[in-house]
Amino acid sequence: MISTIIFTIIFLASSLFFVKNAKKVRRNILLGKDISIKDNKGERIKTMVLVALGQKKMFNRPIPAILHLFLYVAFVITQIELIEIIVDGISGNHRSFRPTLGSFYTFIVSLIEILSVLAFIGTIAFLARRNLLKIPRLVKSELNGWPKLDANLILIAEIILICFIFMMNGADEVLYSRGFSHATDLNDGSFNFSISKHLGPMIYGGMPTEGLHVIERIGWWGHLLMVFGFLNYLPISKHLHVLLAFPNTYFSNLKPIGSFTNLFEVTDVVKPNFDPAYQPVLDPNAAIKFGVKDVTDLTWKNLLDAYSCTECGRCTSVCPQNMTGKTLSPRKIMMDTRDRLVEVGKNIDANKGTFVDDGKSLLGDYIASEEIWACNTCNACVQECPINIDPLAIIVGMRQQLVLEQSSAPTELNGMFSNLENNGAPWQFSPADRANWINEN
Amino acid sequence: MSDTVIHVPTMQEKIAKGETPDILFWVGCSGSFDDRAKKITKAIVKILNHVGANFAVLGVEESCTGDPAKRSGNEFLFQMQAMQNITILNGYDVKKIVTGCPHCFNTIKNEYPELGGKYEVIHHTELVQQLINEGKLKVQGGEFKGKKIVFHDPCYLGRANHVYEAPREVIQKLDAELVEMKRNKANGLCCGAGGAQMFKEAEKGTKEVNVERAEEALSHNPDIIAVGCPFCNTMMTDGVKHFNKEAQTKVLDVAELIANANDL
Questions:
Q1: Closest-CA residue in chain B for A398?
Q2: Which of A145, B100, B196, B255 falls between 20 and 30 A from A345, CA-CA?
Q3: Is the ipTM here above 0.90?
Q4: Residue contact A412–B200, C-beta within 8 A
């Protein structure tokens, strides 16, 4: 009875706390400029199913893809068991579904156990890749501090969770065979779960029944607390990608990636020069800001990108500028964007719902113009991202800010601009000579 | 390869004669002004003349598409250039454009339509592929028979617009050995010129991007590094020089391979 009350309180509290934090993430994302992405629903669902659910782009690198698949499938399937844990927790029963589901129940739990073993292997391998093998993209400087700890914490938590699952099922298996499990006795002598029917007797076979009851409960409560803890850890972690990968791929850019957005604020001003019949739409007296200085100049999709980023660094590992030692790192662009957005969100929370200028901005305080000017706009980062994040959109937005608002392009680029303006070519050639090649030998 | 006088009609001349060209050849700034790139331009013209294509160029009426301005954040300058070009192209009622440069190709194909410029745009490697497939252009290996050729994907042709096969199919017609670099097609590595880097010094680092890419291409000991972009051409040529390999390895555009092989 007491445990039912405690369970219900923990369950409700963690759910409410999660909803509160999820709303905050949503509020922060919607601080971005509004854009409408309502086209091609069928194509969008297909992209989401292939890229997020089907992990299509992960398989460009098979080893991490398979290891990640173990964790991913184990994570998804284990949620089925969670339904029973919640039902048991509220009702005070034990293994509520077993009598009705019968052999299907055995199948599902057996599958969860096999996947848990695979996830255990995957987790150990991931820890090794980060901390022993030091895979280059996993030890870059932008991961120093919290990002590195975040990644390791979740892997360690995964191992503990798997241990809890086998404590729970293993101890219960021995109890069941002795006739002391709280599960309904179906007179079959064993749960017959694929792993714990062997592992249980092997580890716990010699322990007294009272001790087993304690271990089984530790496993059960531990499993539960880990899951509720994970849920509430998500909003402050890169592991938010387990949820946001889905909307983020749904709202993917479906145009050819070489096609950059034409700024309508500019079209509206330029067009009358060429089309006298064109009537400008925007108020000429309204102050228009060009480009991206802070997170609120980005679109909500850019901000969703930032919250979805799992800091895997595939983008940075293929960036031509990063691999040749420049400071530009597409992953850092995404991480900085999220960090700044969180900072702006906290500012709003601390000031009763309005942002109070803190004298800081994403461009300048987080991202240096040196990073922005190094980009080749080659789209390798965009192509590589397993969940279709677009760091290039942010970079180009910042270039627009630097050129159109701050007039601080590198000198050579200003030279190129004036050549283009005066000669119609990026070099200092006369436009009258443009067709000279025809008669040259 | 004969460097005799070639015939290149301009749009203005064609219209004055009452003719309507089927296709506009968009030369681009590099192809118009850069000495090395002009050779690529001529190779494309020779192919067009060889098949008797009804084409024209804009000549002095052509102006930069605005690509380098757009990639470096100068949206005003880009749209000024774009709308100026669109006014001229629409004035001539242009329907189909072939470009000599993937940057022009991408910009006209993807960014002009919203600004009022809607055309069928192809890259010159796609044109060559079409001419071969239609039987209008016969290709023999000629001097390239049995040569080892690596193809470097231009970012704005490949990754940005998914044109991977056209240049490869064309190269394979030369009876040459087409070798793939590890980083190819969607995973191709930039030559280092894109994003207006062509026009500025690189930021501080440990290596130049074109050296990184040329190193990868040269690791296959190719006779030729084939490219489809005048900027890639410059960067790869410089990269080959960096390794003092210009005697062994030539950097040539796909159009030059075809024109040279057919002795046009």
A1: B73
A2: A145
A3: yes
A4: yes
